[in-house]
Please model this.
Amino acid sequence: MVIFTQFGKRISSNGKIANLLQPMARRQTIEEVKLKTQTVSKLRMNSQEKFPEMTIQEVEMEEFEHVLDVKTQDQIVTEAVDDLLNIFNAGNKHYDDDETIIKEIKARINSQHYKAEQIFEKTYSKRFRPGYTSFLAFLYCWGVGTEINKREMFFWYHIAADAQQDSLAANQVGWCYHDAMGTEQDYELAFYWFKKSADAGYAGGLGWLGYCYENGIGTKKDETKAFQSYLKSAEGGDSGGACNLGTCYRDQVGIKQDYVKAFYWYMQSAEHENEYGMFNVGYSYLKGIGVPKDDQKAFEWFHKAALKRNAESQIQLGRLYQSGKGVEKDEAKAFYWYEISANQGNHDGESNLGFCLRNGIGCKINTQLSFDWYKKAADGGNYYAQNEVGYCYQYGVAISRNPLLGFYWYKKSANGGNSSGLYNVAYCHHHGCGTQADLHEAVKLYRKAEKLGNLSALDGLNAFFGGEHYRVQYYGAYYLLRF
Model:
């Protein structure tokens, strides 16, 4: 038999008393109970030592007020976590990159003077509640209130995706498998989780599913399915899906080519702050693809994307400053944007920086630094830079002369389809530089380089086939075909 009293107690049949939970009461964790018990005990000891004249009732009242203060602090931290969780959830609906979301979260932490460690601890205490699990994984990913830990990130995203059927988390698990973040790379599992996320209607998952179908990642390549997935993703508001949909229309991937629709979807993506959408809007204006050519608008969109650290836009911005198209010519700013791009590891940016340093564009001439940047770009597979490194080795520019290495780098450039690389390989075969002379191979490569528009190749052909008459004939034929 159980008798209920007016004070919220219940008396069991064996005479023991247990506290009743009030309707609005919050369940406390064991850690919180221990903390409060330790705090109260310490407070009681300190109070009795400092104020021995205090009565037991006065000490108990001070204990009660302190517990209320602990509760208030706990509520503040809880509200802060919920505030950041709302930013996290809203960000995942509007952005397709975590960098934008983490910037907003860090800005809120700083502006509201939240303590990151407390945010992490409170989130961890709620780690098995839907929503908080994915947020915990996010905190591990970016090291908010804790050390960055990709394995923990993957573990908690997997818990949220599997146990809670969280479609965002399923997409993130797919991303982890795709990029080997916190787990081993597995494209088939990546595809499985992207599809699971997409089937649950998550727009970001649909975008990644389209990417897998377009590139045959973890599944059979199917451009029609890729287009359909991108379309659903874009219609669901995913800016990445909208950008990829624009590329489908531009490059005829799973759908008939339509430059106007391509530009429309690029603009939809750009207006949702997607850096790749911004770049493609800028590029469309630069080349007049699906929209009238407009260098000034191209500059404006490249600038927006460049500020979001889009390396390709930074290069285009540098080129516009260098040429004075769409903006007043400023070689120093051109150099600045090439350097920003290069420092992000972009090989075109590295190559352009090498060019500026060799020729004193926006900076003082520095052949050693020029070679260093060309070499970085060449090692990264930039065909133009490979040709320039070959030149440095052939003629001993900022490096000891080595014709064998010169020929090696020229050949790498030529194999990538660079016309200057082809010309220089032909020249080496013609004159026996770094390789044995082979006139037949030289003529063949001169002709190949000439077809790609390399005018220097005509000089090489002229050396074989006779005089100024041949040169004029070739130049005339070239210009007739070219223009």
